[in-house]
Amino acid sequence: MNKADIVDILEDIAVLLELKGENPFKIRAYSGGARVLDTMEEDLGAIIEAGELGSIKGIGSALVDKIETLHSTGELEYYTKLRESVAPGLIEMLDIPGLGGKKVKKLHDELKVESIDALKAACESGEVAAIKGFGPKSAEKILSGIANRAAYAMRHHWWTAREVAMPILEGLRALSQVERAEAAGSLRRLRETVGDLDFIVSSSEPQPVMDWFVGQPGVTEVTAHGATKSSVRFEGGLQADLRVVPAEQFAFALHHFTGSKEHNVAMRQRALARGYSLSEWGLAEKSENGNLKSEISDSIRSECELFEFLGLAEIAPELREGLGELESAESKALPQLIEAKDIRGVFHNHTTASDGRASIEEMAGAAESLGFEYLGLADHSKASFQANGLSDERVLKQVEQIRAFNESGESPVHVFSGIECDILPDGSLDLEDATLDALDYAVMSVHSSFSQSEEEMTARVIRAIEHPATMMLGHPTGRILLRREPYKIDLQKVIDAAIANKVIIEINANPHRLDMDWRLWRRAAERGLMCAINPDAHDTTGLRYFEAGVNVARKGWLTARHVLNTRGATGVAKWFADRE
Q1: pLDDT tens-place string over residues 141-151
Q2: Which residue, of 124, 152, 180, is where some domain finishes?
Q3: Which of 186, 228, 236, 546 places its Cα 20 to 30 Å from the Cα of 19?
């Protein structure tokens, strides 16, 4: 087992011990050990092999044995039994924002609640509000968190859904009976979250295709198994639907089941205005009395041909949201959307200096493997103490380390020195001006006091934007998809301030954030707002998240010229220096 997975287990053990009311010193031993391990730059395997793990401050003898066992076997009986000893409902409560181990234990001790349903009832009856340390506002927040959890349970992150969908699509395409196969729905439109998966297949022999689909590994439930449509559910709760159609219907079915509903309505209205009826089954000419006159589907075998027949340029799936794409397609004014291959480097990434899990060298190596020309490193500042944030002194030390790395010539990837600096509650910044001036760039982000009013939060962020050292604004609403709602903020005023001060707003490409939302980018970019696609990577694999950021940029109608990452290292350095 690798170091990152061991850290996760140690942190999980600390929470489970908290739920059981164990000695605080024991709990801190595990949480502290996880932090030490997480920030350790040396290779864990080499340290274990040398027998030096116990000599590291913060790793006691009890932890040494457990870490070594996990590293060598990937399993730990102590952890398994501990998890089994805690009621599953209490663990589920930890998914509610604002409820940690201590609070869940107190709720259990005071009210004997062991499920989310019981907790909901206790909040509604006033029992939670009566507990010392909670109160009416806490009960209200818990109820809101429970409601959000129920709503979110029906959706899945795009990144996760794609990981499930791609093997299915490859499997379908490998079947001899399949002529064409595509994923449709919100996955194909690159929506940030996905309700279920839709697959469209062209075949004259549907039964073997259906049998393969319902018999896939990982299927936990078959909810339908028909002649031309089947539905299955996977372990994570994600449902997948398959429709098999004749070749002449494939383009129409793919277009229809890709959606969106608003886009499909607009397309049907356009077809009707030209005397045709459009559906998932095909396209037919209508006679003067309104009856179908003749089928013309056979002449259309692709979505491109369908759009062309209706006098439109082909509309990329991600733009099919009923937001004026037909008008732009009619006037040949659709943008040349940015592509993943346009990205030449990424910013806002973390190392072991704060809460990342890879060194400067490892992150640069991963960037090189992705074909990047440069990499920006922006660890947390000191106010993010939970993330081992850097003091001014540590920031300056890292600047020197990055400079030495670049001068060593050991990597073709140029590393830019940055920081993710906390925006404090009053809008001031977490580091000295002299420290910020020593960096190549700075990303300013909110990580605390999320409950401020809209006016307070907006003024706070704008004050930070107006600071001369601010070059990028990080995850501007603080949202965590399917878990935490955005904090209250007037983004139009924030965008105005960013444009006026030549500050970039990032697309935080972490699949759990995807912030700033794609719905805001088209208008903002037209007004001159510059974008940077930042994966917010905390390990080497996280650098690939930039692809999810490209999705957001494409849905926001952005072209390569709107995004800083499409410039080479020299162009980026020039922008940092000149802000233009």
Answers
A1: 899 888 877 76
A2: 152
A3: 236
